[in-house]
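Field log, afternoon session.

UNIT: design team B
ACTIVITY: writing a sequence onto a fixed backbone
BACKBONE:
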């Protein structure tokens, strides 16, 4: 029987169409445990969920479980290991013992204030053996950072114009930021975020640090504060988007590609979400609060006096587990390459 070129081409096209239809028909649903409610912080994973749903014709979906729908916030890594969820956020400072190397992001006065530097440094460190090993312990891998902004302080009373002005202040500051403020002579409190408004209103707290600017507004601190720091940048944290290694391994190749290809857009959307909310919040701060802006010399002094001692202690405390200095050096190298 003679087969024409047209017949061959048609047969090949039908075969490819059948293969494509079979692949696209694979229904996969992931459960992703969100940290809290929908806000700027959650934008990255929301964009990814939308991208994979559209890219797969609705066959691959990521269900977003807000406000502990799928897992307790502080147990998200445990839930991944137990295969109860396929992905989640987690915040390093809530359980440093679970993610010791990730605590590098919470060290004070590191040069992570620039969005480009922050993104590049976090992406680089996610690939470092120490951070990979931390996630391996939970059968997880870090896909993207939520790129938390630098923290800044809001407070009442005399604005802290110098390093010495922080002495004796009662401040809400966690992790490495809290350690640095103690070096400056401040009194660290353990007040939860939801209790800050009342504490400051009653005068039992002088200042509080939160990711700038969206968290200050979320907790309404600007309503009772009298001043705010604009460029102190005392530190930040890391609350990444992580996925189950087991779920990833089982995912069809075309769906893995959708997630991989979306990474740059996820990062961009995350940054834009914070930038847009700053456009709304900053004018509100400027109308009612006194800005406190430090000089370059003062910022260098903050780093030398209250930053480096905390870094050195952290490196020494973890020397038997990983090379902490190498992680810090990666951040400074990224900043230098960016001209910061």
């Amino acid at each position: 029987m003679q087969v024409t070129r047209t017949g061959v081409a048609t047969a090949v096209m039908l075969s490819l169409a059948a293969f494509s239809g079979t692949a696209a028909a694979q229904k996969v649903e992931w459960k992703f445990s969100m940290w809290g409610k929908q806000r700027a912080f959650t934008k990255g994973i929301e964009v990814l969920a939308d991208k994979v749903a559209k890219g797969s014709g609705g066959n691959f979906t990521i269900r977003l479980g807000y406000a502990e729908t799928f897992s307790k916030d502080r147990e998200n890594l445990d839930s991944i290991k137990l295969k109860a969820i396929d992905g989640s956020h987690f915040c390093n400072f809530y359980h440093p013992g679970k993610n010791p190397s990730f605590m590098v992001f919470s060290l004070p006065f590191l040069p992570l204030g620039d969005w480009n530097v922050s993104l590049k440094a976090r992406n680089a460190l996610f690939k470092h053996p120490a951070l990979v090993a931390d996630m391996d312990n939970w059968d997880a891998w870090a896909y993207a950072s939520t790129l938390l902004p630098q923290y800044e302080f809001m407070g009442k009373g005399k604005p802290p114009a110098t390093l010495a002005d922080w002495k004796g202040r009662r401040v809400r500051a966690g992790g490495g930021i809290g350690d640095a403020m103690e070096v400056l002579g401040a009194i660290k409190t353990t007040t939860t975020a939801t209790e800050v408004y009342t504490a400051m209103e009653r005068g039992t707290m002088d200042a509080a640090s939160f990711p700038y600017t969206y968290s200050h507004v979320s907790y309404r601190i600007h309503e009772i504060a009298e001043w705010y720091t604009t460029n102190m940048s005392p530190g930040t944290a890391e609350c990444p988007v992580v996925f189950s290694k087991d779920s990833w391994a089982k995912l069809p190749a075309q769906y893995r590609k959708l997630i991989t290809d979306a990474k740059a857009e996820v990062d961009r959307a995350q940054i834009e979400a914070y930038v847009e909310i700053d456009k709304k919040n900053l004018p509100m701060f400027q109308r009612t609060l006194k800005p406190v802006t430090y000089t370059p010399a003062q910022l260098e002094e903050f780093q030398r006096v209250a930053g480096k001692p905390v870094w050195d202690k952290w490196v020494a405390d973890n020397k038997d587990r990983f090379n902490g200095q190498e992680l810090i050096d990666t951040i400074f190298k990224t900043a230098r390459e960016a001209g910061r």
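LOG NOTE: The mean pLDDT is 92.
NEXT ACTIVITY: expression trials, pending approval
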